[in-house]
């Protein structure tokens, strides 16, 4: 047990002792004060340690954050059984052992039934409050942890995405300079044209590199310009064909993905007039395909694999759909997902999350009101009981406010923790997840 918990039990014992000694004790002597202190301490520590042990045991075995429903059921069952045993033990020690106002037979008869039943209900209310407090603390801790984790994930995703995008400049420049250097030796005139075209293409690279997604139309137009640049070097050794319908032009792909894949085709395959390299760019359902006939050239230096790996990693940060690579004996094909909507890699809170946060705030306010009412009930009802006990002998009118107020509290608890708002939220979340999964299947 924590030191703070022990201090709370000590102050509870002292406060209960003073309350009963000053207001419900006719004989104000040191002996009666000590007996009252002994009884208050016994009730406080037995009930406090008993419920604390139950709560800590359940926290270890069934944390609220991992098994909420199971924990709720076990908490209800355990506090009912546990407090029943603890209250009977305390009352037995009080009336039979310490004060000796009853025999064991009398204590277990109907004579003390009302007293035992009332004490059990008070203990259950206090225990329920303690378990609810534990639930709120665990909820705050879990929520705080999830917020920190989500922020770290968002920052990591952004950093990773920026790192991947920053690979494009040196990668494109390195490959373009390699082409240019070989072209200078083969055909200096074409090298000049290549340099002019390269400046236009590089402008597009600089414009698009900071974007997460671009339209298929923009990427196709850029790919056609880049293919013209490649044709200036390879002439009739390379053939390009584009077969992408207009209805696919407004979908989205990762920027510079076609350019990187075209580079790979040229880099890993030989192309001659007698054996030209044929590269097809076409759409197949919701994928953009780049296919070439396989004419693998011998590599003196092993490829770094930056281009294709870059595309795969950037897609993994934007969608659950995968980049597919198909290789046969005579063909090599890469399938890029075309997305219907433009995803965002940012730390901004989506509208759905903002709405969910507002619902969570409303729910927390309702829970706070409920716990305030529960605490008030735990204070007022025992007070009414003692007023009834000492003012109206034989007539127990305090049951009426206790029952009505208790039913109201039970209804509010059922609404908050049962099938009220929480059921609606779960259903809304379930429908939203279904729609999200359905949309993920489309994009």
Feature tags:
phosphorelay sensor kinase activity; alpha+beta; 443 residues; membrane; two-stranded antiparallel ribbon; Bact_2-comp_sensor_kinase; Histidine kinase; transmembrane; Heat Shock Protein 90
Task: Describe the overall structure.
With 443 residues, the chain is an alpha+beta fold. The protein folds into 3 domains: 1-158, no CATH class; 167-337, 2-Layer Sandwich (Heat Shock Protein 90), CATH 3.30.565; 391-443. Helix content is 70%, strand content 8%. The protein is built from 13 helices and 7 strands. The strands form 2 sheets. It has a 5-stranded mixed beta sheet with strand order 2-4-5-7-6, with helices on one face. β6 and β7 form a beta hairpin. α1 runs antiparallel to α2 (30-61). It is rod-shaped, with a radius of gyration of 38 Å. The protein starts with a helix and ends with a helix. Residues 346-350, 419-424 and 439-443 have low confidence and may be disordered.
């Amino acid at each position: 047990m924590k030191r703070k918990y022990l201090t709370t039990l000590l102050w509870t014992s002292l406060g209960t002792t003073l309350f009963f000694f000053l207001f419900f004790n006719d004989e104000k002597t040191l002996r009666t004060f000590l007996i009252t202190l002994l009884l208050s301490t016994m009730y406080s520590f037995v009930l406090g340690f008993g419920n604390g042990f139950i709560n800590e045991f359940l926290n270890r075995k069934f944390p609220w954050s991992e098994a909420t429903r199971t924990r709720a059921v076990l908490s209800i069952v355990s506090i009912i059984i546990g407090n029943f045993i603890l209250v009977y033990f305390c009352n037995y020690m009080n009336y039979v052992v310490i004060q000796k106002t009853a025999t064991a037979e009398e204590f277990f008869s109907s004579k003390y039934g009302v007293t035992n039943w009332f004490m059990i209900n008070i203990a259950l209310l206090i225990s329920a409050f303690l378990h609810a407090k534990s639930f709120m603390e665990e909820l705050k801790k879990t929520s705080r942890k999830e917020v920190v984790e989500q922020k770290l994930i968002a920052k990591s995703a952004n950093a990773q995405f920026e790192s991947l995008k920053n690979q494009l400049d040196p990668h494109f420049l390195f490959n373009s300079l390699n082409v240019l250097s070989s072209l200078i030796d083969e055909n200096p005139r074409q090298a000049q044209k290549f340099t002019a075209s390269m400046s236009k293409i590089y402008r597009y690279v600089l414009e698009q590199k900071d974007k997460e997604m671009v339209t298929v139309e923009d990427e196709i137009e850029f790919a056609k310009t880049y293919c013209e640049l490649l044709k200036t070097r390879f002439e009739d050794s390379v053939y390009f064909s584009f077969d992408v319908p207009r209805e696919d032009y407004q979908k989205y792909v990762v920027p510079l993905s076609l350019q990187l894949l075209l580079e790979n085709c040229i880099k890993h395959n030989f192309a001659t007039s007698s054996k030209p390299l044929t590269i097809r760019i076409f759409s197949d359902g919701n994928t953009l395909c780049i296919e070439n006939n396989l004419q693998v050239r011998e590599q003196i230096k092993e490829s770094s694999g930056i281009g294709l790996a870059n595309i795969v990693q950037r897609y993994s940060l934007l969608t659950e759909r995968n980049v597919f690579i198909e290789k046969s004996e005579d063909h090599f094909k890469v399938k890029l997902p075309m997305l219907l909507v433009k995803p965002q890699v940012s730390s901004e809170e989506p509208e759905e999350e903002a709405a969910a946060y507002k619902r969570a705030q409303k729910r927390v306010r309702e829970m706070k009101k409920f716990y305030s009412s529960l605490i008030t009930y735990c204070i007022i009802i025992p007070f009414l009981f003692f007023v009834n006990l000492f003012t109206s002998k034989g007539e127990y009118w305090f049951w009426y406010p206790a029952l009505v107020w208790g039913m109201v509290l039970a209804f509010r608890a059922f609404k908050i923790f049962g099938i009220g708002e929480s059921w609606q939220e779960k259903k809304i979340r379930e429908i939203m997840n279904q729609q999200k999964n359905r949309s993920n299947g489309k994009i």
